[in-house]
Amino acid sequence: MKIYLAGPEVFLPDALEMAALKKAICARHGAVGVFPLDAIADPAADAAQERFFEIYLRNEAHIRACDALIANLTPFRGPSADAGTVYELGFMRALGRPVAGYTNDGRDFLTRSRAALGDAVAPRPEGGWVDAEGLHLEDFGRTDNLMIDGGIEAAGGLLAVRAVPEAHRWRDLAGFEACVAALMRERLQG
Question: Do residues 155 and 102 touch, judged by C-beta distance below 8 A?
Fold first, then answer.
């Protein structure tokens, strides 16, 4: 099974070392990890006039070539998961292939949103919370936006949630390994 390794690790200063660690975990479980920075032949990407579009096309080519996807949904630059990772998760879900995710932040989405917004959050008289623009804060007790959690649940995938100290949130791979193991179990049973 080829598993696309979606997540903001591509932004780490040691992204390739993290990729190697994740690929080694996949190999231990009998899978092949595919990292967004891995080379892939794609004529459309080769012809792209701008670098961002080349990256986009290569990442989609990787996703199309994989059997499943694991998304690192640890909050990135705000209270929610990395937007690019979420796109990739939804793309794989739309292809009808297995998806799983993990987060190294054990707080729910409302708690993280309130912390990020600080004093800009106010209670609503009828219950719940609003931001400074009067927009409701999502409060379903879920890990992230309902479409992220719901997509993984609808696919029958694992969403591993772990409270990891902030200093280790980008390095702790226990949730990732749980996702790999779950995907491989599902493949053997299916």
Answer: no
What per-residue confidence (pLDDT) applies to 190? 65
**Host H or E run for residue 102:** strand 99-103
Separation CA 22–CA 37 (nearest Å): 13
- What are the beta bridge partners of residue 159? 101
Dihedral, CA of residue 86, residue 88, residue 89 and residue 92, to nearest 10: 160
Q: What is the mean pLDDT of residues 38-51?
A: 97
Find all residues with CB under 8 Å of 5, minimum gap 6, and list them. 19, 22, 23, 26, 33, 34, 35, 36, 70
d(CA 144, CA 126): 23
- Residue 95 DSSP symbol: T
Q: Which two tokens stand for residue 36?
A: 């967004």
C-alpha dist (Å) from residue 124 to 112, 136, 140, 146: 18, 9, 16, 21
Residue the block writes with tokens 């961002």: 52
How many CB atoms sit inside 10 A of residue 125's CB?
6
